[in-house]
Structures
1.
Amino acid sequence: MQNEATVEMTDDVEADEAHKQRLEELLTSLGGKLHGLAGEQVAARQQLETRWLTDLRQYHGEYTPDELARMREAGTSSVYVNITRNKTRAAIARLSDMLLPNDDRNWGIKPTPEPQLSVMSNSGEQEQQDQAREIREEAEQKARSMQSAIDDDFTEARYNGKARDVIGDSCLLGTGVMKGPVVVNRQRRAWRQDEQSGMHVMEIQEEYRAGLERVETWDFFPDMSAATMDEAEFVFERKLLNKKQMRELANLPGVIDTQLRKALESDPDGHHISNDRRDELRAITGVDTVTNGKRWELWEYWGPLDKDELIAAGVEIDEDPLTEYSGCVLFVGEHVIKAAINPLDSGDLPYSVHNWEEDPSSIFGFGVPFLMRNPQKVASSAWRMIMDNAGLSAGPQIVVDKTAVTPQDGKWQLSPRKVWISTGKVPLNQAFYAHNITSNQADLYSIFQSAQQLADTETNLPLLLQGEGASGGPGSKTLGGMQMLMNNSNIVLRSAVKNYDDGITEQLVRRFYDWHMAYSERNEIKGDFSIVARGSSVLIARQDQQEKLLALAQIAASNPEFARSTEWQGLYREIVRSMSVPADNVLKDEETVEQEKKEQGEQMPPELQLKMAEQQLKQQQFQFEQQKAQWDAQLRQQEMQFDQQLKTAELQQNREVKLAELALKQELTMAQLQAKLGIDTAKIQTDREKAAAELTDSQNRRAAKDRNMDMGFDAYG
């Protein structure tokens, strides 16, 4: 029996050893596979990194070492006129100001519309209408609670500051990356009074929350075969760690200590798959390089994983043949040190990308320096030529005939009050000759100005966005003209703002929403909600928006139908925000307003009712004045017609009286007088027609003569 037990124990030990060996083989296979896949993405991104280095040199106003060597060899100016930096900084500042307002968030959450609620609200039964209203109010309350929960996560993670860094990356290099939600361990500190000693002691509580990170573009290696993040199957993220940070990885839960130890022992100097560009970046900015810094590459992989690979890394999973597993793997070199299942049930990758200008063929876009590459080259070249021409044309070129004079001090350089000795072989007026180099400053400067205008055109960033004036016609000096110019200049930023809304805001908030739906214990925040990105809503200038909101309030208040369909609290909140006043400091919160409405029987405030009554009275008075004006116009028209008829009758009567008096004087009958007047009238008409015919004939003859003269004939025949 003892022998049998010993044999069974031996078999179990051998089975365990075989199982461990198989798991190590799977881990080694996984590490080798991910190591090779990461190397492929690094190689595919080399061309982009070369472009980014050029963008950085252009942003910092630096020539490449080869360009500087050629300039020194040619003896030309090496000055660099940097028009790229202002453009890029203007784009960063303007985009950050629009996307990250201080008094509002650039996103929101609202309940998903349900057709059934609309049917219930439109039904004739009061019970169903009340039920639909209660369901809708409950959904809106949950949406507000979810919005507050995500907003709290963003505040804890310093979302605005990291979003500005992302915007800076996208404007400079063309691509900015935001990562979230990520699990972070935060410490909360609180002071409490000890009951026994009476002294205040500090308590430190640790909690795991959803956070977010800004990922440097240099450390982001997505699936390079994909054109968008939706098409990307996986993502690699690189982190450069020193030896101390590598050892601290052992404190993370789930880390495989043996694999981490192997990684440190097998390569004590640090293992690198990609190129470390820090020395090149320091050289561009003029910082001394650090040659003795050892860094290990910790790679973070997000994407599909095999079931056996996850099990080998110690991950507990439900073995379902129909399930595609998505997870995260940390590895150094070919050593996998940790693996985990993707915390999001949707399997979404926790990375969002913003491009200043999108590239339809790549996840990475184009930044401002790349878009104005050629104008910057023209501007720098033109300014170098200006400097070279200014140096040459500053003074004349002197030609000296050595046979005519010799310098007394033996030096042929010109200097003030220098003494020359004549040789007597050549007349002194022929000893020196001065030749002036033509100054082309005006022509060269026009080229420089054209380069600046070309930069405005190619980047769609006018000078107005840089705080400089712009010529927009006579009306541009007025307040309305400047507002129009500001609104027109904002149009060029709509594409970048929409890219941010689509690429980062909607996707990031959606993932945080999924996180809370899956892991939050607060049922009052859970529901079916829609994500709304509001970055593009601030494109209208605040002053213009304020005027439109005030006009909208007047229109709504003047019409009872409009007033009933207007959300007055929301409208007033938008008016306050348009005045750049913090709405939370001057307005009541929505819960307080709702409570006061219920206490007042959900009636409209008396002040608003009085204002609406005054508006209705003014509207009725305006309509009455319009009707009265129409009546007055009709009455005046009738009076004018009557006066015209009366005057016509008086003239006719006076004519008949005059004719009777004339007939009496000439002793004629009225018939004879009328016949005589008819003959005289016909004669006068005949004379008029004859005179008109003679005038027409004279004009025709003159015109014919002019035509003959134009054709070269001397007479008219």
Note: Residues 540-603 form one domain.
2.
Amino acid sequence: MSKQDLPRFHLHTSQPARPPRGHKLVIRLARGSKASSLAETGQSNAEVVTDKHSNPARVRHQREFWQWSLLWLMIVSVIGSMVIGGILLLTKLPPPANCQRISPLSTDSERIYCAQLAAQSGEFEQLLEAIAIVQYWSPNHSLYPQAQELLREWSEMVLQFARDTLNQGNYSDALNMAMQIPVSSPLYPEAQAQIATWKQERIQAQAIVSQFQDALKVQNWQQAAQLMTQLSRLNDPYWSVSRYDSLMKQLAAEKEAWTQLQEARDLAKSNQLSQIEQAIALAAKVDPNSYIKAQAQSDLSNWSRTLLQIAAARFQNQDYQGVIDIAQGIPINTSLYQEAQDWLRLGRAGKLVQQNTILAFIDALTAVRQLDAKSPVKKPAAAQAVQWEAQLQDRLQLRLAQMSASFEQRPLLQMAIEQATLITPDRPQRIRSQTYIAQWRKQIQQIDDRNTLRIAQQLAAGNTIDQLNAAVAQARKIELGQPLRIEAQSAIAKWNRQIETLEDQPILDLARAFAQRRDLIAAISTANQIRPGRMLYAESQAAIAQWVAQIQTAQDRPILEAAAALAAQGRFDAAIATAAQIPPERALYQQAQAAIAFWKSQFPNQ
């Protein structure tokens, strides 16, 4: 339709419209389109000009035209949607089969689909389930070629599971896995051949291993190595690799055990205690799973017997720690271990006895009584127990005496001495009782000395010369060798010093009285009456030195003042000569020397 064919309509409006000058409302209809568009343009195919002179009939016709156009547009849209939906419905794939609900009524396509889905997991049980689905399909089945190809693939996976299991040493499980491959599988002949090979190699490998173990029992290392070479040549990785490695480790362990036993035997040949102990320790380390262990056990028993004989000798010599050390070295896996434990118990009992306490003796005797009557240790233990019981009785006697002496009273100490004297010279505790007796006699003497010294101290408390002299005389009764001799001598020295002080103090006081009256000569003469070694001698000499210094200062002060006067006149040589008249032992000597040094430093040319 051309532009000329489009009718022109004039529309009347209820109100006059005043469109802008130069603009018209245009409706453009495009051929073959489903809709129309309105646009303002100066060039249009159909124009509707609205003014107050428009035709009503033409407006109605135009409205009907648009209504029919919209109706046909809607019909075309509905038909198009229906066509597109039908096409999608026809091309949509059917839903997959539900493998959880497979039943005898399911189609073979669904079955093979579910079999493939199960085999994709790679699990052994899932593979068997997949094989079970297709293994009975006949060659006439439409899906038979596809099923055979899948059956070959799945059978190969099952056979690989069997190989891996065999490599891990699980022979029975590997055979059971390989036997799961059905006759209908293309891989069935290969699986049966593999099973036969495994059985044959197992028989051959077991024979080699049996011969290998026999060679180890007789320490034929060369034959064992040759058998291992034969085993390594088998095609089965389990026997040629895994089992081979474990058997080579066993061979190395047997060699090491044999070497240890030989070293232990070389050490034990010296028959010395330390080396036998080393031999036992080395033989005890032999691998208990080795064939050498039986020989090692025999040697351990022999060497342990030698050690226990040495332990018995040490027990007789009362070397109880030596008995303990030897018994502890007997291994637990020897036939003499229990006897060694009895020696250990007896040695510890001896160690207790060495503590020399009543409780230790009781514990030691209890340990001896606990020994089995059939034990080889029972006889020497019983003989020793007799001595320990005698020592226990003596200790109880001494304990009673100690309880009496513990009060530290003179009568009770004397009673304790009498009780200890009852232990005769042939008893084990005789020496100990004599030691206690000497100790208690010393305590009695100490009590007597303490009483003597206490009387002397009471006399000295008066602090007069007569009383102090009486105290000294009393203390001198404690003679040399008595317990409080040193303490008595210290008290006597103290009281003598007090006596000297009381005797010399009036002399020193008189000298100081003379000094206060400026009679220094009389003060010095009086103080010199105190003899050297006396208590106040040092104090009197210090006072004398002070008084002498005062006399010298009074004598030498005019000389030093004269020298200072000369120095003030500039006569430094004369001043120095005058100050030098003061001799070194005089009190003002240092002061004079300091003045001389000053004058020389200030006037070096003088």
Note: Confidence is low (pLDDT under 50) at residues 1-54, 88-95.
